[in-house]
Design goal:
Number of domains: 2
Strand order of the largest sheet: 2-1-3-6-7-8
CATH architecture of the largest domain: 3-Layer(aba) Sandwich
Helix content: 40-55%
Strand content: 15-25%
Shape: globular
Number of helices: 10
Distance between the termini: 49 Å
CATH class of the largest domain: Alpha Beta
Number of strands: 8
Radius of gyration: 18 Å
Largest sheet: 6 strands, parallel
CATH superfamily of the largest domain: Response regulator
Structural class: alpha/beta
Order of helices and strands: EHEHEEEHEHEHEHHHHH
Length: 218
């Protein structure tokens, strides 16, 4: 029997010690494979082009620039890659900027080993992943820009089917899972997402999910 393909990972951190620790941790998982390491943005861009990783673990602070800009450029060049920001910085603006730059996850370096490994698997499966502490910040960002109680909900502009799609996305479902649950073609789900992103004036799943959580909080 052929074993399933391993998830290829690119590590981008200026600390050799951090990279060594991550490589050792991920190397112990049979389904994960560190294909390259970079200590600078320049090296990350070069190695991403040759190694074509499925997931990129990217620090925010790098010697030749900031990780948010690197995330934006990596997504432009390699849109199929899934980028997780892994950093010690839990700054509100950085979280927002990273999500808008295309990051699929934002984790703090104090996350436990099991949480990090699962986050990589989730990212590779198309799911967004946020550190619990970061989730609270994303929701706070959504609240700060939320309309007053007398204004209509931004979700009111969505059709019933778009709201059903958004509800599942907010639960972390992938496009394929949404398609199966709603008995739709995966391409149709992508079309619904494009439409609802435009109506909500967002560009990322995490932003849409934060808005949904804000509007449906108990």
């Amino acid at each position: 029997m052929t074993s399933p393909a391993r998830i290829s990972v690119l590590l981008v951190d200026d600390s050799e010690v951090v990279r060594l620790g991550l490589r050792t941790l991920l190397g112990a998982e049979p389904d994960l494979h560190v294909v390259a390491e970079a200590g600078t943005i320049a090296d990350a861009l070069r190695l991403a082009a040759t190694a074509k990783p499925a997931v990129i673990l990217l620090d925010v602070r790098l010697p030749d620039g900031n990780g948010v800009d690197a995330c934006r450029e990596l997504m432009r060049r390699h849109p199929a890659a899934r980028i997780i920001m892994l950093t010690s910085m839990a700054d509100d603006q950085l979280v927002e900027d990273a999500i808008r730059a295309g990051a699929h996850g934002y984790l703090l370096k104090d996350i436990n080993a099991r949480g990090l490994v699962q986050a990589i698997r989730d990212a590779a499966a198309g799911k967004s992943t946020l550190d619990p502490a970061i989730t609270a910040r994303v929701l706070a960002l959504a609240r700060s820009g939320a309309p007053s109680s007398t204004a209509p909900s931004p979700l009111a502009a969505l059709s019933a089917q778009e709201q059903r799609v958004l509800a599942l996305i907010a639960k972390g479902r992938t496009n394929k899972e949404v398609a199966m649950e709603l008995n739709l073609a995966e391409k149709t789900v992508k079309n619904y997402l494009s439409n609802l992103f435009e109506k909500l004036h967002v560009s990322r799943r995490a932003e849409a999910a934060a808005l949904y959580a804000q509007e449906n909080k108990s």
